[in-house]
Design goal:
Distance between the termini: 54 Å
Strand content: 5-15%
Shape: globular
Number of strands: 12
Helix content: 40-55%
CATH class of the largest domain: Alpha Beta
Strand order of the largest sheet: 4-1-7-8-12-11
Order of helices and strands: EHEEEEEEHEHEHEEEHHHHHHHHH
Number of helices: 13
CATH architecture of the largest domain: 3-Layer(aba) Sandwich
Structural class: alpha/beta
């Protein structure tokens, strides 16, 4: 179990910040977790003004410290807001630059990538942002390599995530990076949220391979994701990873908190969901392209994982009603 952490996570809350991402940061980094021995992080909120109006004036945040807290942050989460055309306050951008210069880790949730780019710290770096702002981001910041088709981008000391809910994915990724897979899995269970969420939105067509301590596993995950239409087995995965099936099982449990077969089945079901969302009506085609084999197996696994039949799932999530 980890002891009380001295790693300080500071969140800048600026005018019109989105309270959802603030809540995600507080939930992942700020809560006391007795089952894990205490706080995983020393968590602080700060703001450039004593009274900060949140998005659309839903509420006003008061009682947090000033921007000087950023000078002591090990991880600094920068503000976002729905209006990406309005520049950030110069004092906020200066605080981000100072943190970057002294080596703090920077994190941007959703439109927070715009804040990081405005500060100039993303020049020559990789980042992601919500898909609806991809074109505008590329136009305004051509010196940044935007990757709009992933949940999040880990570029070492600067990390960015896509849409609002992806803040949880990136947050859990940071916990995994800082504290290991077991702790991240415990936190995700507390959140009732998948430790590795893949697919589900337009920008997730190219699904990111999660960071894992053992680099030999990541290529195997990517390889398997591109061969889901073939009858892969755990033995096939082990052969690609050049390890025994028993070793593969141990690595999956340690690094992903699941078994190879459960991960593989989950990937197949996720792909099936995406095909249904795109309007594919032929269940035999979905079963074949996902490697689930039969329509009976497809129906059973989809109902198990989503509570819906394929036709119900398609009606609920496809862009146009199925005819």
């Amino acid at each position: 179990m980890p002891q009380e952490s001295s790693h300080r996570v500071v969140v800048i809350v600026d005018e019109n910040s989105n309270p959802f991402e603030l809540g995600c940061a507080t939930e992942v980094f700020g809560l006391h977790r007795p089952e894990l021995g205490g706080h995983l992080y020393d968590f602080r909120l700060c703001s450039p003004t004593p009274h900060t109006a949140m998005r659309d004036g839903f509420f006003t945040l008061t009682g947090v410290t000033g921007l000087d807290a950023t000078d002591h942050a090990d991880t600094l989460i920068v503000p976002n807001r729905p209006n990406v055309e309005t520049p950030r306050r110069p004092d906020v951008l200066d605080a981000i630059r100072r943190a970057h210069t002294r080596g703090a880790r920077l994190v941007g949730f959703c439109s927070g990538a715009f804040t990081l780019a405005e500060a100039g710290v993303l020049d020559g770096r990789r980042a992601t942002a919500h898909w609806q702002w991809a074109d505008e981001f590329r136009t305004r910041f051509p010196q940044v390599t935007l990757e709009p088709d992933v949940l999040f981008v880990d570029d070492g000391d600067i990390l960015t995530s896509a849409g609002s809910a992806a803040a949880l994915d990136l947050g859990l990724h940071l916990v995994r990076r800082d504290h290991g897979a077991q702790i991240a899995t415990t936190v995700s269970r507390r959140l009732v949220f998948a430790a590795h969420r893949d697919g589900g939105q337009k920008q997730f067509v190219e699904r990111p391979v999660p960071h894992v301590p053992d680099e030999s596993l990541a290529p195997t995950l990517a390889w398997a994701q591109h061969h889901l239409d073939t009858p892969l087995t755990v033995t096939d995965l082990a052969h690609h990873a050049a390890v025994s099936p028993a070793t593969l099982h141990r690595r999956f449990q340690a690094q992903l908190g699941t078994t190879p077969l459960a991960w593989l089945t989950g990937e197949r079901v996720t792909l099936a969901c995406r095909l249904l969302e795109l309007g594919e009506k032929r269940l035999d085609v979905v079963a074949r392209r996902t490697g689930l084999g039969t329509t009976t197996n497809l129906r059973a696994l989809l109902r198990r994982d989503t509570g819906l039949t394929p036709s119900q799932y398609r009606r609920r999530f496809s862009p146009a009603p199925a005819r």
